[in-house]
Structures are given as structure tokens and as C-alpha cells.
């Protein structure tokens, strides 16, 4: 947070305060962006949603996002650490989207931003603008009581978003178990691996294709599948190899190439380590089994 803010716990800035980021990025702190003037779109995770005056964007730590603000637009960016607002949540930032909705409903706008628009009517947004001005003043002073007020105002902003989208947030939590984002992210990774098995695959490239950070992806795979990225790729490559060996007359070296192994000898070794026999022996066994 120190790269984009004056303070590590909480900071607020309005447009023009720093060079703005125009490419998808992520960071290890919470962020709320507020649209004051001008219409654009926000990209968050794999979703693209509208953003303009009266809209708030709730960004969870490590979630890929960007809001390209056009010339003449006005906006406010609020950054804060997990410890600053929710010190009682003893969960690593990478695991926040796995928390149960019922235990921490105040996280709902951050968990479900990819699926909802947080747009406020004129009276509500007038309150939000007044809160932003208070946050600016308290942050400039940074007195003991002022920072306590900052926490209270942040809770009110998040609470208002929860109140106005209560029905939809509860529906998402009920029908998708609070795990929609993680499930969708994992599916994007699996699709990327499946579609690129004949290419070199890296954790960094897969994370970028799935709109994740490499650290988040590594953590997600370990939590959800118990595998590393390398183990996932090896499993999928050898699954593909079994399919090709069984269902085609393709030469073993071509099977190896189709599964991302440029070296046939290395492919043979890896196949035997996992399957227990060579690719040729596996094919012979499958042919014999199918014949009778």
C-alpha cells in the first residue's frame, strides 16, 4: 500500500493525486473506489461492470482489477488494510474469499463485486460524498479519535452497500455458498491449462489468464485441490496422453508433443512414474482390453 498511499493502514485520495494505473493490477489491501463524475467501466476479476457517478467499487485484496478513468472524470480511492478495519478476522488475505458469509457479512460487497453493481441514488450518494469529505479531514489530522471516526465511517459505507443490496447479496451467498469467485477462478485456470497443454505452461501465465496473482493461484490450488500448479499440469497432460494413446493411432512421439513434452524420452519416464508402465505398454493393454 505504501506505493500508492501516504500511510500503510488507511489513506484516501482524489483523482490526480498520483499517476493512475491503467492496466489490470492487484494489491494486498482493501480498496473502495467512488465514481464522482464521468462514465466508464471497471474490470474486476473476469467481469466487466459499469462505473460512473454514484457507483462504488469494492476490491478485495489480491483481486485483479482496473478502472480506466477517462479525461475529465472525478473519483475517489480509499485504501485500507485488513488489520485497520477488521483486526478480528484472523485469516490470511489470500483466504478472505473463502470465509463464510454468515460469519462476516460485512465482507459481502468485496466478495461479490464481480456479480453486482453498487450504484446509489442521489440521497444515498450525497451521504457518501459527505462521508468522503470527513474521511479526508480525519486522515489529514490523524488524531487518535479521528482514526476511530475513520473506522466508523468505513463501516457505514460498507453497511450502506450491504443494506441496499441485501436481497441480492443473500441470494448469492445462499445459492453459491460464498465460494463463487474461487470456483470460477479455478475453472478459468483449468480451462487455460486444458486449452494449452501442448505449450509451455507457467504459474505466472496461468494466473494472468485467469485474472489472478501467482501467489493467489498457488494458494487457491493448494486449498481447493491439494495440488501445486506443476502437479495439476502433469496430471492433465498425462490424462490427455492416456486419451490419445487409447483413442488414436498417433505415434508416441506425437502424443508426447501434443501433451507438451518436446522430449519423448522424458515423456516416457514421466508416464511410467505416474501410470506404472510405458506409453507403448499402456496402449497395448488398452487395445487388448477393448478386443476382448
Automatic annotation (TrEMBL):
Q: Which SMART domains match?
A: HTH_ARAC
Q: Which GO terms describe its molecular function?
A: DNA-binding transcription factor activity; sequence-specific DNA binding
Q: Name one Pfam family in it.
A: AraC_binding
Query: What stretch or stretches form a coiled coil here?
Result: none
PROSITE patterns for this protein: HTH_ARAC_FAMILY_1, HTH_ARAC_FAMILY_2
Q: List, for all copies, the residue spans of the domain called HTH araC/xylS-type.
A: 187-285
Keyword Transcription regulation recorded: yes
Q: Which Gene3D superfamilies match?
A: Homeodomain-like
Output this protein's name.
Answer: Helix-turn-helix domain-containing protein
Amino acid at each position: 500500500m505504501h506505493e500508492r498511499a501516504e500511510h500503510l493502514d488507511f489513506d484516501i485520495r482524489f483523482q490526480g493525486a498520483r499517476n493512475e494505473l491503467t492496466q489490470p493490477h492487484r494489491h494486498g489491501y482493501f480498496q473502495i473506489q467512488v465514481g464522482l463524475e464521468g462514465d466508464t467501466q471497471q474490470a474486476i476479476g473476469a467481469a466487466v461492470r459499469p462505473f460512473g457517478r454514484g457507483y462504488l467499487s469494492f476490491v478485495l485484496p489480491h483481486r485483479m482489477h482496473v478502472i480506466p478513468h477517462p479525461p475529465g472524470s472525478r473519483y475517489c480511492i480509499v485504501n485500507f488494510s485488513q488489520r485497520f478495519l477488521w483486526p478480528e478476522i484472523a485469516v490470511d488475505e489470500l483466504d478472505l474469499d473463502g470465509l463464510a458469509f454468515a460469519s462476516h457479512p460485512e465482507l459481502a460487497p468485496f466478495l461479490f463485486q464481480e456479480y453486482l453493481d453498487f450504484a446509489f441514488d442521489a440521497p444515498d450518494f450525497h451521504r457518501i460524498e459527505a462521508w468522503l469529505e470527513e474521511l479526508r479531514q480525519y486522515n489529514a489530522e490523524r488524531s487518535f479519535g479521528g482514526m476511530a471516526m475513520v473506522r466508523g465511517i468505513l463501516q457505514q459505507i460498507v453497511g450502506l452497500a450491504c443494506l441496499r443490496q441485501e436481497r441480492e447479496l443473500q441470494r448469492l451467498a445462499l445459492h453459491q455458498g460464498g465460494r463463487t469467485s474461487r470456483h470460477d477462478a479455478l475453472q478459468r485456470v483449468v480451462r487455460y491449462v486444458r486449452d494449452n497443454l501442448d505449450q509451455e505452461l507457467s504459474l505466472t501465465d496461468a494466473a494472468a489468464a485467469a485474472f489472478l496473482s501467482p501467489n493467489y493461484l498457488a494458494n487457491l490450488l493448494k486449498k481447493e485441490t491439494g495440488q501445486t500448479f506443476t502437479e495439476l499440469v502433469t496430471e492433465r497432460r498425462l490424462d490427455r496422453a492416456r486419451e490419445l494413446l487409447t483413442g488414436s493411432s498417433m505415434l508416441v512421439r506425437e502424443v508426447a508433443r501434443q501433451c507438451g513434452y518436446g522430449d519423448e524420452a522424458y515423456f516416457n519416464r514421466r508416464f511410467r512414474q505416474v501410470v506404472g508402465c510405458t506409453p507403448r505398454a499402456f496402449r497395448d493393454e488398452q487395445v487388448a482390453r477393448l478386443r476382448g
